[in-house]
Amino acid sequence: MFLDFSPSAKGKKGQVVRFVHDPDGLVVIADSFDEYLEMLMEYEYDFITEDIVEDF
C-alpha cells in the first residue's frame, strides 16, 4: 500500500492504493489516508488481538 501523490486524471492526490499481483495492477482503497483510517475504525479492524496481548 502507498499514498499516491501523482495520480492519473481519474485519481485523487493522496489516495491510498495497493499493488495487486496476477495480473499486476493498482487498486484504489480509499480517496485519502483519513478515509482509510475511518474505514479501519468502522469495520473494527484489530491490529492487536487478545492472542497477541497474552504473548507480552
Indicate the topology.
Blueprint (H helix, E strand, L loop, with lengths): L1 E3 L10 E6 L4 E6 L2 H10 L7 H5 L2
Poorly predicted runs are none
Mean pLDDT: 84
What shape does the CA trace take?
flat
Give a count of the beta strands, DSSP E runs of length 2 or more: 3
Order of helices and strands: EEEHH
The percent of residues in helical segments reads 25-40%
The end-to-end distance, rounded to whole angstroms, is 28 Å
Task: Kindly provide the radius of gyration, computed on alpha-carbon positions and rounded to a whole number of angstroms.
Answer: 15 Å
- What proportion strand? 25-35%
Number of helices: 2
Q: How would you characterize the overall build of this protein?
A:
This protein is of the alpha+beta class and 56 residues long. Helices cover 27% and strands 27% of the residues. It is built from 2 helices and 3 strands, in the order βββαα. It has helices at residues 33-42, 50-54; strands at 2-4, 15-20, 25-30. Strands 1-2-3 form a 3-stranded antiparallel sheet. A hairpin with a 4-residue loop joins strand 2 and strand 3 (25-30). The longest helix is centred in the C-terminal third of the chain and has 10 residues, at 33-42.
